[in-house]
Amino acid sequence: MAAPALERADETPEPGERGRVAQLDGTGLIRVGARPRLFGYIREIWSFRHFLYYDSHSRVASANSYDSLGRVWMILNPMFMGCAYFFIFGLLLQTGRGIDNFIGYLIIGVFTFRFFTTAVSGGSNAIAGNQKVVQAFNFPRACLVISTTVRELFSSLPMFFVMALLVLTIGDMKLDGAASIPTALSWHWLLFFPCIGLALMVMLGWSLALARAVNAHNDVKHVIGFGTRILFYTSAVFFSPERWSNIGADWLVTVMNLNPLFCVLDIIRHAWLYDGFADPARWIVLASWAVGSLLIGFLIFWQGEESYGKER
Amino acid sequence: MTTSTPYISRRSRASEADLIAEDLAVEFDDNAGDATETRDDHPFTQQTPVIRTVKPENVCLVVDDASMTYRVRSSSDKHESSGRIARGIKRVTGAGWAEVHALSSLSFIVNRGESVGVIGTNGSGKSTLMKLLTGKVRPTSGEVYATSTPVMLGVNAALVKEISGRENIRLGCLAMGLSPEQTAAKYDQIVEISGLSDALEMPLKTYSSGMSSRLQFAIATSVDPDILLIDEALNTGDAQFRARTKERLDEVRSNAGCVFLVSHSLGTIKQMCTRVIWIEQGEMLADGDPQWVCDQYEEYTSHKANGRMRAAKVVYERTRLRLDRMQIDFTTGTRPKKAGTGRNR
């Protein structure tokens, strides 16, 4: 044991310092706060599944508890948005010309886009906005992000129901310059569920990666707001992608085809409005995004597990 | 005056020690008999390390050379960055990074069955040490090792304001890693300790601060952790509640392998602890017998309270001289790397 003695001797000897060395066998000990291995981490999350479920569930119930209309806002909000967009883009700018069933087209676009972006921006704030919970308990932090996404799904269920109702009733309303195809319930409508499932995987992957980024640098929040706008205009929420090819910007069409949110909208629109299948390429792109972002996002988040308790 | 700065660097401490050497000489004459009596086998000049093997089965918690420096955003000019570029950036963005030395490196081992009191004036680094012990923050240097993840019983146990007391109890239990069955089993006990059975259906935002801290206490003490950290502010509330909580707190303490108690009440510390660590200005000043450490602390604080900074400094240096510094050395290849779980019993 010469090494510690040498180390001590190099330092300025402080008064009263007697370099006592305690030697011990650390086999039975753990490092406090250490990040578990990947599979251990997944197992930890699994063992906290009840917490995850209960957390998302209880917060859905209390989400709008400060408004007098409460949960009704979950439906009113996208409806008002839809009206505003219909007025601006449908009536004033006429972006809907040439789109069959434009009202249904717009409703699906606005409602689903809102679902996607609120979940991602909520998920990205899951760690930074819940520092009190993080400081108080020791559960794996990914639980918070997953719970935010699950919560968003729960709270969107009534909204999706209203969306289906609206598409069925007024979705095929006749507008100038476009045909009207009657909408009716068919088994194609069920394609909505696997599609939203894949969308959830994309959202969770993005939320996980962004949650770490926002916790490390609050500045990322501003960039997320900007990114949401970009996503809004490249997802064909209120216009048809043909618009781009008409003005000769074919590269923008390629960008849109690779955009997961556009794939989601396109699949749902084909199933609900036009009673058919979307291009299989949409499914392939969406599925690759789902698997890829969930995998990469999870790895990024897990890698930073030890940094989430730090105050900023 | 050095005492007004939150942290004293190693260098200025050494020169300070020279400056007050005479004062110390006087002080040591007073203590000479005492010092030689207990420590005559370790004269002050001895530099060779004394190697002592610790029985691993007794060890509960090991702090190995842990130190903490926070980097925070700050717009004040007090912590001016040294680099020109950094200053330029700060001028543009409006705030620069300031480094706060919260804790300089310290090492100690806590054995099973020990109750350790942690004392120190406000801002001395007690809370930082607790954060390092629970693994919420990773130390800037060094590590903390333990047999299981230590659990902090504090008033900061998170509660969700919008949901009812009943739901908060369930949520808190599940967040501590209890299964739904265990949660159901503990539910009655939690309600009883909190004494809030009438208000359980109300959302938490309608609770008074005293009521919500009672609920927090009841939830936090529903588990029996092996390594337990108790915050001084925990045991608040009216007399009736204090009497009820004391019982539960004693129960949790007796079930725990080792206990840390952070408190300003020296009476509680002397009564409950077998060992006391005194942290001052981010540095460990003393680690040992409760009576002796508390006496030094009391003398220090009374000098400070009466503005006798020089006298306080003397007590500070005198106590630091007596500190038996230790260094941790793991048998080759046994430095722990494993992670603990967040689950509780």
Task: List the topology elements.
The complex is a heterodimer of chains A (312) and B (345).
Chain A: H1 2-10, E1 20-24, E2 30-31, H2 38-47, H3 49-61, H4 73-92, H5 102-124, H6 131-136, H7 142-170, H8 192-216, H9 220-233, H10 242-246, H11 250-257, H12 260-272, H13 280-303
Helix pairs in contact in A: 3-7, 4-5, 5-7, 5-8, 5-9, 5-12, 7-8, 8-12, 8-13, 12-13
Chain B: H1 10-19, H2 21-39, E1 50-53, E2 59-74, H3 84-93, E3 96-111, E4 115-119, H4 126-134, E5 141-146, E6 151-153, H5 165-175, H6 180-194, H7 209-220, E7 227-230, H8 239-255, E8 258-262, H9 266-272, E9 275-280, E10 283-288, H10 290-305, H11 309-322, E11 326-330
Parallel strand pairs in B: 4-8, 4-9, 6-7, 7-8
Antiparallel strand pairs in B: 2-3, 2-5, 9-10
Helix pairs in contact in B: 5-6, 6-7, 10-11
Q: Give the CA-based shape of chain B.
A: globular
Beta-sheet strand percentage of chain B? 15-25%
Q: What's the CATH class of the domain at 2-65 and 107-150 and 225-322 in chain B, please? A: Alpha Beta
Give, in order, the helices and strands of chain B. Answer: HHEEHEEHEEHHHEHEHEEHHE
Architecture overview:
The complex is a heterodimer of chains A (312) and B (345). Chain A is an all-alpha fold and 312 residues long. Chain A has one domain. Chain A contains 13 helices and 2 strands, in the order αββαααααααααααα. In chain A, helix 5 runs antiparallel to helix 9 (220-233). The longest helix of chain A has 29 residues, at 142-170. Chain A is elongated, with a radius of gyration of 25 Å. Chain B is α/β, with parallel strands linked by helices and 345 residues long. Chain B has a domain at 2-65 and 107-150 and 225-322: P-loop containing nucleotide triphosphate hydrolases (Rossmann fold, 3-Layer(aba) Sandwich). Chain B is built from 11 helices and 11 strands. A 6-stranded mixed beta sheet of chain B has the order 6-7-8-4-9-10, with helices on both faces. A 3-stranded antiparallel beta sheet of chain B has the order 3-2-5. The longest helix of chain B has 19 residues, at 21-39.
